[in-house]
Amino acid sequence: MPQLIPIDDPADPRVEPFLQVRERDLVGRQGRFVAEGEVVLAAAAGRGLLEALLIDRKRVAALQPILERLGQEVPVYAAAQGVLDAVVGFHIHRGILAIGRRPAAPPAAALLAGLPARSLALALFGIGNHDNMGGLFRDAAAFGAGAVLLSPDCCDPLYRKAIRVSVGAALTVPFARFSPDQDPVAVLREAGFEPLALSPAGRERLAAVTPPPRAAVLLGAEGPGLPPELLARVRTVRIPMSPGWDSLNVAVAGAIALHHLAADASRTGAGCDRIA
User: Fold this and answer.
1) How far apart are CA 208 and CA 122, in angstroms?
2) Do 63 and 55 form a contact (C-beta atoms < 8 A)?
3) b (16+ CB within 10 A) / e for 115-137
4) 249 and 133, same structural domain?
5) 186 shares its domain with 250
6) Domain span holding position 145
7) β-strand 235-238 against 147-150: which pairing, if any?
8) Residues with Cβ < 8 Å from 97, sequence gap 6 or more?
9) In a domain, 266, yes or no
10) Which pLDDT tens digit goes with each residue over 182-202?
11) Which of 31, 32, 159, 195 has the most CB atoms lying inside 10 A of its own CB?
12) One domain, residues 133 and 245
């Protein structure tokens, strides 16, 4: 178990990376991320991602099983709640913050090529809301998607709020970004994935789609949805709804689509570690 280091002064230079978390959310962290909460810590522990922890000293005993999975090189700073809040800049009621180093993201084609013969992938376009991004990564983990592919204009899945909403799935499900000069549809097809684009105007009912061996669910931002030029090139599917209602939250729609395509139990869980 890593050594616990008591912190009694919010100005202690050893906890400088944790200072004023919200302000640093806005300007970035030079290749690092911040994670918060016990569930997220449990997902990240033992993966070689974490560089330091700052925790409420009252939580040390309860967190011991998780702390034992950390390497000896990871410092664990323990402070009273008041000191913790002063360092972070707001009341951190979960009492747990971690600083981690972002893993290197592989090229999209390489990530897809390394997946099993029967695989699911999630391809996201223009997702700018961190709650939705976190929810979509949670969907991917829950239904065994082996990869999440992001368009260049998607928001950061390793933003603190996105990690929290994903309950740590953003740290466990592999992801990559399409480069601005790539054709996402071509990349998916060259890797043997059949793109299935969700749209209220989809030509096929989702329930009638037979899951292909390698399927990629394509989702766009709420409101504009997927670009028309992309929809014109792929199979489009819809989730039928009551009259007068044509849309769902994008993370809800993604969950429904992934659940249908992962109905074959041999596929579920093939691509990522389970969180719980």
Assistant:
1) 19
2) yes
3) beebbbbbbbbbbebbebbbbbb
4) yes
5) yes
6) 108-261
7) unpaired
8) 18, 21, 34, 35, 36, 53, 54, 55, 88
9) no
10) 999 999 999 999 999 999 999
11) 195
12) yes
